[in-house]
Design goal:
Blueprint lengths: L2 E5 L2 E4 L4 E8 L7 E7 L6 E6 L5 E3 L7 E6 L4 E6 L8 E8 L3 E3 L3 E6 L1
Parallel strand pairs: 2-11
Antiparallel strand pairs: 1-3, 3-8, 4-5, 4-9, 5-6, 7-8, 9-10, 9-11
């Protein structure tokens, strides 16, 4: 059974930082592309950051220079370090894994107050 469990969300003031963690089980983590998406009410889920098996990354333009995605294959975990947070970063953040199949976590709420 595949499980992606996010943690680390919460309420933070603008300019602050949070680190999201996604712990994966039931997948061959090292061969999965991992990503973070976010979604606000009434909007489509959007890609925030992606990290490939090679370690290469890509980011949404809106978070470049502020967010960093990383992975620890030994721990089956992917992280999203979020710095200089803005109110517009407020959303539910979802962990995503993709290989032969695609899986989603349950989401974690991030709220940035102005």
């Amino acid at each position: 059974q595949v499980q992606l469990v996010e943690s680390g969300g919460g309420l933070v003031q603008a300019g602050g930082s949070l680190r999201l963690t996604c712990a994966a089980s039931g997948i061959a983590f090292a061969i999965n592309t991992m990503a973070w998406y976010r979604q606000t009410p009434g909007n489509q889920r959007e890609l925030v950051a992606r990290i490939y098996t090679t370690g290469a990354t890509n980011y949404a333009d809106s978070v470049k220079g502020r967010f960093t995605i990383s992975r620890d294959n030994a721990k089956n975990t992917v992280y999203l370090q979020m710095n200089s947070l803005k109110p517009e970063d407020t959303a539910v953040y979802y962990c995503n894994s993709r290989s032969s199949g695609q899986y989603w976590g349950q989401g974690t709420q991030v709220t940035v107050s102005s």
